[in-house]
């Protein structure tokens, strides 16, 4: 039955949100009924289940039949779009990184490794927004192909989309600590994009507005911490994007997420100083309370990151090594 | 170059698509759940894939043509579907159109060259 659960879990990924649980419950019972008939006809249960799932079709194919919406990019074009988006997501940042390294090294005499690292870190927002622009352009090109040239590439598309579904390749159901919350991931990614945009390109918004003028609240000390802050946010965002694509966490991604949480905690400690504020403005407007509250907030935030991150990662390690079951047994015995 | 078999397959698929809804609605005058409806249609020589029928049932249900209820028939729950008053009205209208089209097409197909 594990194979059936894996199959249903994959179908769930592509089903529309509306009535998703009801659809899955119905499908599960219908498949079980079919399986029962096959077994009563003398087939081996495992073989019958394998054949049944294979005949029923790939999870994506099955789930898409439950969707009535017409996407901007049709389902035949979708796999090709995703492939090209993946290529863009790798090549654009790599290209900018390479260009940054070359330009940085060629402008240095003598060579300074630390300056090179700083230049690379400073290029991170450019890599990110460059990739976003690349993805947008590819999407627009696909919309144009979809509208005007799709008929001409019908045959190539058919070959590209040839289904090769084998139930044996269905991914295993993730244990609870590896499950991904769709809304949490999307929320974190959106917040990260806004955070990067405002802190790098619209920093002037964080100002004191008075009598038609505005004075920036943060100063050069903050800007010296900004590159490492960018790295941390982009790092967190990449992890969430991987979670969103895979719809599951892994030991590697949770380890990376733990490292990012600790890094974020360290950054909060670096930020927890009054010197990042524009002293003249703070004193001029009599706003000393803001830096004080900020410092306290940052320290509390840092502690929460260290404790929260360690507890979450601890749970993952316990679940991963199978110690969770051992602990449960010990607790039950003591009861 | 698209093969002859592919062309025929696509055209047959299009021809069948509309009549499939009519066939399903006609059988839902009595209560059925997905698997029993597949069996009933298969016995009447109308081959339909399960993964085509189940989403179709849900679509017709969402459109308000059917009444659906979960019933527990040991060992497991089943979702039953049946035509409601609106569904019967739609079926009646579709049946009228189908019979009309059938006669027109039949006489057209029998025309001598």
Explain how this protein is built.
The complex is a heterodimer of chains A (335) and B (113). Chain A is mainly alpha-helical and 335 residues long. Chain A has three domains: 2-64, no CATH class; 78-165, no CATH class; 176-334, no CATH class. Chain A contains 14 helices and two strands; from the N terminus they run H-H-H-H-H-H-H-H-H-E-E-H-H-H-H-H. Chain A has helices spanning 2-14, 20-40, 45-56, 59-64, 78-106, 113-122, 124-149, 154-160, 182-201, 220-246, 251-271, 279-284, 289-320, 323-334; strands at 207-210, 213-216. In chain A, 16% of the residues are buried. The model of chain A has no long low-confidence stretch (mean pLDDT 83). With 113 residues, chain B is α+β, with helices and mostly antiparallel strands. Chain B has helices at residues 4-27, 34-43, 50-62, 85-109, and strands spanning 32-33, 66-73, 76-83. Chain B has a three-stranded antiparallel beta sheet. Chain B starts with a helix and ends with a helix. Classes of the chains: A mainly alpha (335), B alpha+beta (113). Chain A binds chain B through residues 19, 22-23, 25-27, 29-30, 32-34, 56-57, 61-62, 65-66, 68, 155, and chain B through 2, 33-35, 50-52, 54-55, 58-59, 76-79.
Inertia-based shape of chain B: globular
Order of helices and strands of chain B: HEHHEEH
Give the averaged pLDDT of chain B, no decimals. Answer: 90
How many whole angstroms does the radius of gyration of chain A measure? 26 Å
Structural class of chain B: alpha+beta
Helix content of chain B: 55-70%
Number of helices of chain A: 14
Quick recap:
The complex is a heterodimer of chains A (335) and B (113). With 335 residues, chain A is mainly α.
